[in-house]
Amino acid sequence: MSKQQIEEIEVSDSSSEVHPNIDKKSYKNWKRQMAANHKKELKARYEELSKKDALEEDEKQEMEKLQHLLTPKYVSVNEGGFRVSKEDNNYDQDYVDELLEMLRDSSLENFISVVSSNKIDLNVFEDYVLYNLSENIKEGNDDVGFKLSKISLFLGYVKNNGSLLVSRLCDELKNPEKLELFENDVKKYYDASKNAILNLRK
């Protein structure tokens, strides 16, 4: 399926809907929890219908609709901007907004800011980043893939070294020579990932 054939869903910033007396971070976490609960209900209904030996016509239509709603998303590129595209896969994602924010500004400073100001399960988020990296490699989106590789490395640093050492790295990357070394590491990481993914398709 070509990118032109993929239905594009633009990601909007829903935080503008928040009442000024409501803490935006709490509101966002609440919305995520509500969405997760709703998704569980949809999955339960889909599984219930799947267990039936024979389905009525309206039940078949309901299953199609549920499958459509439960289809996960991955970040793709369209007309110079980031969008969220549908893809048939069983991957369960929850961090579209955070990843888009990191892709718009893939600096370590912004990465730390996003991780610090949002409730993120680093293991789940890392899986989501790697899934996106794989999909963008398949589509030939090298620019996005490079940024995702950078984010993946940042995640590894946080998980393995803690926030203190990552803050030190943030200071070190202000040095042009060390920044160049890091960019080379990102390129090697991306090239290795690209080779591995494309070889799997052969």
TrEMBL record:
One of its GO terms (molecular function) is protein kinase binding. This is Cdc37 N-terminal domain-containing protein. Residues 7-88 form the Cdc37 N-terminal domain. Residues 1-26 are annotated as: Disordered. Pfam families: CDC37_N. The keyword DNA damage does not apply. Residues 32-66 form a coiled coil. Keywords: Coiled coil. The keyword Coiled coil applies. InterPro entries: Cdc37_N_dom (IPR013855). It comes from Nosema granulosis.
